[in-house]
Amino acid sequence: VSISGDEIVVLDSGGYGGFTIDKSITISVPPGVYAGMIISSGNGITINAGTEDVVILRGLTIVGQGPSYGIYFYSGKALYVENCSIKGFDYAGIDFRGPGYLLVKDTLLKESQYGIYISAASGTANAVLDRVHLERNDFGLEVASNGKVTVRDSIAANNSDTGFYVNPAIPGPGELNIESSVATGNSCGIRSRGFSNEATIRVSNSTVTDNATGLESISYGSFTGNLLSRGNNTVEGNTSNGSFTGTFTAK
Amino acid sequence: MDRERRISMKRFQIEMAGVLVIFALVAVPGWAGPKHYVASYGLNTNPCTLDSPCRSFAQAVSVADAGGEVIVLDTGGYGSVTITKSISIIAPVGMYASVTVSSGSGITISAGAGDKVFIKGLTIRGTSNSLSGIRALTVGTLVVDNCFISGFACGFLCGEGIAIFAPNSNLVVEDSEIRDNNYGIGIYNTSGSVKASIDRVHSDGNGVGYDVLTSGTAIANITNSTANNNSTGFENAEFGSPAKVIMNLENCIASNNSYAGVGTFNGNSASETHLSNCAIVGNQNGILKGSSGTIYSRGNNTVVGNTNNSNVVPTAFSAW
Description:
The complex is a heterodimer of chains A (about 250) and B (about 325). By secondary structure, chain A is mostly beta strands.
């Protein structure tokens, strides 16, 4: 019933079903109110909006019982996900298909195949993750083709495959900057895989510990998995620490 | 413990209880007096008490004494307000309290030079015709805490999430989201000095995230904050000597800004921008220095992945 630009406010704790968004909208759940979506079929929130539409989701709990996506962003200008908890999806907690801009902050993503998956078939998927926890997924964060992502003050823990992963296929490179973050308890802490395109990860002021493999770089042919350090990271206490492929300098 | 001391202790406890009762009797009127209340079920003909709350911020602020508090009791929209004295407007955690305007400003402050205004927990929304979310024309100290402000976009040099014009004032912004305005936080004093402390703020999707454009002087300390997806993230500008701006950025992120992550457009060579522990990535221009002023770096910043990382080698400054 709402029109573009409206705000939907949740007044009290309760269960709210899955839905699709096709315009600018804000959904706000104030602190102290529990708005839970239990999703047994289909996606939690599907965003199929116009190129100038901004979608803001605040304070939601989205629980999957097997199906595909917690939040699936097909199209729109920007998506903000704040203070949300998303778990238990067969594919991804958040799947962001650019072009567009994604901000995730103060949010927990756990027990899905991908905590967050970011890519763009054309243009660029720009994203910032601030104070995000990625726990017990297969992959905490995967940045695929045409993704440019900055992560700060975030944790990838106990993911069964990889904590922070750049894995671009066709059509474009993937880039991830990690600042003041932690990768621990994963099979692999941070992996840069140049498969069908160039992968670049830059790491600063971060800790990689207690993973089976701390750091891993994989290159295929001319496509390099760049894994660069600013020289201010702690990479210790992994079964195999691995190594950076190069450095970049502080400025 | 012997019997006499037990009696003595008992007497002491009774006396202390009496003292506390007297304190409480004296203190209750002092606590109750300055508080006024608004609620979605309130009426503006009410006295704005806890039992009979008002409906709008404007009515509650008008009946409140200087230094008083206006407290939100439940989720609702409470309308725009003009403040002319020291006042606190507080929406406690657990409710959604909004001010929505289609033109003009959400909260206008024309208070005394020594007055303090505190805004906590509000959602303030505007449109393409709206002036400012919070517009401080005159005030001593303005504190904005835990607010969400978006959509103020009335045009070029117009449309700010928070704008402060007050000379010789203090601005504090904490834990707030400032989105989709023409200017996120603007410091625009034409004389005197503004001292701003901005901590844990996300200013995203604006024309300019943090805009210091003054013909007076200004010091802006911005910490643990982000400027993403704006045209320019952090802007340090003034109208030339004697105007002067010092902008200090600590542990900040500037990313995906379509023109510049950190841009200085100084006319005064004495203006300074200090960068420490910041990540400036994925912008068109990471650091863009104008014709004057100085950009300093502590040598601990990540400046990578911008189309143009920097048009200047920043001057080094040392950690202490």
